[in-house]
Amino acid sequence: MRPSGRKLSDLRPISIETGIMKHAEGSCLIKMGETHVLCSASIEDRPPPFLKNTGLGWVTAEYGMLPRATNTRNRREAASGKQQGRTIEIQRLIGRALRAGVDRVALGERQITIDCDVIQADGGTRCAAITGGWVALRLAVNKLMKAGIVTSDPLLDHVAAVSCGIYAGQPVLDLDYAEDSEAGTDGNFILTGSGRLIEVQMSAEGATFTRDQMTELLDLAEGGIAQLVAAQKAAL
């Protein structure tokens, strides 16, 4: 039995509320159970310097966690003057994941920055950030297209992410903190709406896993991604 009482293949309750931020070109608040992430998209009409005069656009991301997003207060990274390695790794992951679903030629020489701020954490924050970040990106691109600035849709497909793992010897979908902290194997799966793989992160946290178990987790992830994409579509 999972601590939440969910079935092995159940997602946590998910909601995506758009238009959360007045000034951002795209924004949403995504809730996956008790994990809540505010995602916003900001458009700059110039690419980063390394892409100047290439005809290519860029999508990047920044990620952060409020001090009381967790059980005990975390010191703000700005107070220490540098980002933690975990933060840098996650925001690079978000940027890579979202760029995989973008035609950068169609986007043109501009940059869209996705800001993902964790308001409350209960496991799976990076997955929620990617899933909500895509919605914010979609809304920002819609504005570019409505204004006629971009004529061909640069978003090739939906992008969403979900965690899976081996908890109490069973493969489970969408781990919350209680499961994540005790999981023998932990994985994050990032896929397109059509089911193509973008990135898989898997590690043996407390016990090694078999190839068959990895296949079971991928099967769970595919089912979860289909539900997340449906939630993205409903939100839009």
Automatic annotation (TrEMBL):
PROSITE patterns: RIBONUCLEASE_PH (PS01277)
Presence of the UniProt keyword Membrane in the record: no
Domain spans labelled Exoribonuclease phosphorolytic: 11-140, 159-222
Sequence positions that bind phosphate: 86, 124-126
UniProt keyword terms in alphabetical order: Nucleotidyltransferase, RNA-binding, rRNA processing, Transferase, tRNA processing, tRNA-binding
Origin superkingdom: Bacteria
Its EC number(s): 2.7.7.56
Catalytic reactions of this protein: tRNA(n+1) + phosphate = tRNA(n) + a ribonucleoside 5'-diphosphate
GO MF entries: tRNA nucleotidyltransferase activity
UniProt cross-references to Pfam families, sorted A to Z: RNase_PH, RNase_PH_C
Classification via HAMAP family: RNase_PH
Annotated family: Belongs to the RNase PH family.
Chain's role: Phosphorolytic 3'-5' exoribonuclease that plays an important role in tRNA 3'-end maturation. Removes nucleotide residues following the 3'-CCA terminus of tRNAs; can also add nucleotides to the ends of RNA molecules by using nucleoside diphosphates as substrates, but this may not be physiologically important. Probably plays a role in initiation of 16S rRNA degradation (leading to ribosome degradation) during starvation.
Subunit architecture: Homohexameric ring arranged as a trimer of dimers.
Protein name: Ribonuclease PH
